[in-house]
Amino acid sequence: MKPIEFTIEKNIPNALGRAGVLKTPHGTILTPSFVPVGTKATVKGMTQDMLIGLGAQVVLANTYHLYLQPGDELVRDAGGLHRFMSWDGPLMTDSGGFQVFSLGAAYGKGISKVLHPADASMQIPERSTADDGVPRLATIGNDGVSFRSHLNGSLHYITPEKSMEIQHNLGADIIFAFDECTSPTEDRRYQEEALHRTHSWAKRSLDFHKSKDISAHQALFGIVQGGRDEDLRRMSAQTIAEMKTAAGEMFDGFGIGGSFEKADLHSAVRWVNEVLPEDKPRHLLGIGEPEDLFLGVENGVDLFDCVAPSRNGRNGTLYTKDGKIHIVNTKYRTDFTPIESDCGCYACSKYTKGYIAHLFHAKEMLAGLLCTIHNLYFITHLVADMRRAIIDATFPDCKEKFLSRYQAGKDI
Amino acid sequence: MKPIEFTIEKNIPNALGRAGVLKTPHGTILTPSFVPVGTKATVKGMTQDMLIGLGAQVVLANTYHLYLQPGDELVRDAGGLHRFMSWDGPLMTDSGGFQVFSLGAAYGKGISKVLHPADASMQIPERSTADDGVPRLATIGNDGVSFRSHLNGSLHYITPEKSMEIQHNLGADIIFAFDECTSPTEDRRYQEEALHRTHSWAKRSLDFHKSKDISAHQALFGIVQGGRDEDLRRMSAQTIAEMKTAAGEMFDGFGIGGSFEKADLHSAVRWVNEVLPEDKPRHLLGIGEPEDLFLGVENGVDLFDCVAPSRNGRNGTLYTKDGKIHIVNTKYRTDFTPIESDCGCYACSKYTKGYIAHLFHAKEMLAGLLCTIHNLYFITHLVADMRRAIIDATFPDCKEKFLSRYQAGKDI
Hints:
TIM Barrel, homodimer
């Protein structure tokens, strides 16, 4: 029995992109689709009714965070993550690999998933070593990763099998193989070494997961890594795509991992998706800015998750069709129009920029809530629009129209 | 033209309490009714749909806070408070008097509306003087109050006429006369002096308000003060009840003000409501704990507002029929039942105590939101239940049943 079913409805002519339908044990996801992130079993500030109202089809929670708090066994005892967080729709959990990376090589360096050239203050760290004077919370070995909790300093050890066990306890519909996410600036030798580890961990994740009955209800996605090197990316995609258990069982879908530089994103995704089999879903991990979503969809990505829309919202940065705006700018204090007059989100249907600006200045909780609703609505609907454009065979037009207006936006 | 209409549907036999219907320009309030507080034009964390869902019929905003931020003229320019905060139902604004008191005599003393004997750490301040070494942000004169903004230290001067102007700009359906709220521990001489001032300010508020066309759409409530002295309370009620403009216009309803000690609440409310005319609504300012609500309703109060239910919610203290509980108590971590299984609020219909406890431990925004929803639902429905009991002639039974169970609660 297959835990998920994926069918392609339409392709973008002369490109890798496609519109599909992904059936999971907790409902159907129309792809491409943006997946809001509920790190600690909650998309920050959102009730489940709000999530449904803003168009979320599926939510991704973080294995690392839930393992530490409240603990995956507690979630299991609550009846699994769906019941614990009261979300009846499809759920994913990531592997914990990215968080281990964040607390290890990238700790304290402000590394995000995509390094935008505009982020002048962002330092790309050199190769992580024990003696570079930078504090580390994680140590990567070939068998697994030992790390200290960012909450209380307690020591933990995660292996691929342990990551699977945690994700089995959480019980999401789609789970990910344990992997090592490297910085794009690591040298070639380290990239190869890390990739070798990721593949070995993928095999152990696959073997462990498929040996359990629960694999009939939980799909396992293998993660492709390989940094910015074309041959490593293609080799990784091939390896993960062909990986099987002794009984011939394979991954149910794929994650594309990595901490990308803006310029690498396009090519890395294309290299990988040219290799991966067409009939299985592909999830680009941690990517969610509009430009990147268009690149991803065009190049064959079916699923995206990212904290950017919700985090930006809490900080008062709002997506609009004319680019991002900062709601705390003085000019919005007396602007009694919605964030976008043609937006169907709850915040735009009910409230004005002037009111939301007041809420931010007054440090009111409702400020972050309304902006999160708007941003998640904006991004989920943008990806839904891309899907419609693929089906209508107007994707290139949809992309050009959106980006020319979006990138001409002047506010920030 | 009268801005509001109030009719009594039924009285409690041999008591002052009554069930009524209060018609305002923005809809009808069935009384007695609890009024959630939206200090800065937002009931903290609540969307307007949540407020409607939890049973709010009317919201009270704070004149003092809105005058300072975003400014009453900005709210006027936005089309008034209803449009600014997108609340189509009845709205009230208080007079600013209590906040002036809080920032003046009570500043830094943690004075709340009701001093419970259990609050052992609470110091009741001595009479405010300039030389007692306690910092003051407000100075009370006979013409008005000068105070410094708690936001930026800027100097402001509020007179009764200014309070009316601010409340006219805000445009609530029911507004309050400017008053001085004294501490129950002030000496008799000061109570008399303050009461004299409150009455003089009430007359100026009434004259100013009734001279404006807007008084056809905004009801003005006069505030009765008088501390814990029966003769002062009765005299104040008489004075405010009989107060008229030269053209014979009177207050549309009454507020009962004061910073009460628990033991005084019952008697003070009774003294006042024995004197006030029966045919106008009475609002007990800043009271909202279950025991106090029963006392208030029994003794003829029609409206209550209080921050306690929402503030307690944000702090994880939840009202239940078995008393208050602290959701962060260890035992709730693995309690996968709703806060109350027979509660119809969104939080109880959707989430468990274990999940909400996790949200609190993880410092997630949704924690405060869900607990605010539950507490406001609990209190608004408790007062609605009292109304039903008055109509069914079962109020004493309803009170006894609720309080015996509530007060036997063991959690805190």
